[in-house]
Amino acid sequence: MPARLRDIPLPALAWTTVGVVGGALALIFFYAPIDADQGITQKIFYIHVPLALTSYACFAWGAWKALQHLRTRAPGADLESYAAIHQGVIFGALTLITGSIWARTSWGIWWTWSSNQLVTFLILFLFYSAYFMLRYSVEPGPARANMCAVYALFGVVLIPVSWLSIRLANDFIHPTVFTSHGPQMSTAMFATFCVSWFGLLLLAATMYRVELAGKRLDARLRELRELLGT
Amino acid sequence: MSSGEKYVAAAYLVVFVAVLGWVAIISSKLARLTREVSELVELARRRRERDAA
User: Taking chain A, what is the end-to-end CA distance rounded to the nearest angstrom?
Assistant: First the structure.
């Protein structure tokens, strides 16, 4: 069994993703029971929460790679940090959109500024969106890599703030499903949630690997062009 | 289709369309990289022919 994610062949990872995501969709729509309180709209939970958690994981991975860049100057760590943050922003945007759809059907509104969970997640999303403005406003080179790494590390502080905000404040509108007593749902629902989250983590890993491969190929081609003098 | 079902469909459709969009962007990037590789291969071939002449 490959010890690291990068050792898994990309086609194998992609096909596993297709299988797990397909399985998760089957579980969501044919296995997980309909929630007695929210009805069919609770099914959004199986995509919305895993998207948010995957987004956190991507930002944390980006920050970890940024730390590696700052500590050891590991070659490629800056690019890996960038790719992870890019995936985090994509998954973050989807979290906000699916959350808005769920809010509209559950609360009758698309957005509320009174929920700390929503606002802190939006701040986290905007913070990492601004990462790209910083990255593309500075000339490529060691200085840009260092600046981006420091910025990525600062943002990681917002992840626990976003996660804990609902527990630290009295937020009555956004539900807390995972409490100190465990998940507040049936075993079937929790199993479906876990498979769905695993599927989205695999999807993020596949997208990350594809994006990295593209960026590395792009850099090699640029190098080749310079060598050939075109 | 009930109102709730429409919202559920919309949420899942958004994610599906986003992944599809990402695949389309990566495909166009792959097409550009393939074109660039072909150009560089052609350039290298012309250089070899010129050096051989």
Answer: 43
- A226 vs B: CB within 8 A: no
Contact by Cβ (8 Å): A210, A217: no
Using an 8 Å CB-CB cutoff, list chain A residues near B10. 101
The size of chain A, in residues, is: 230
Retrieve residue B45's tokens. Answer: 């071939």
Q: What is the distance, to the nearest Å, from the Cα of residue B41 to the centroid of all Cα atoms in its chain? A: 21
Cβ contact, residue pair B2, A44, below 8 Å: no
Cα separation values, A206 from A11, A102, A105, A225, Å: 9, 27, 32, 29
pLDDT tens digit sequence for A168-204: 665 555 666 666 677 778 889 999 999 999 999 999 9
Q: Which chain A residues have a beta carbon less than 8 Å from that of B8?
A: 40-41, 43-44
Q: Are A81 and A60 in contact (CB under 8 A)?
A: no
pTM above 0.90, yes or no: no
Six-digit token pair at B25? Answer: 């962007």
- Gap between the Cα atoms of A68 and A60, Å rounded: 12
Supply the ipTM of this predicted assembly: 0.85
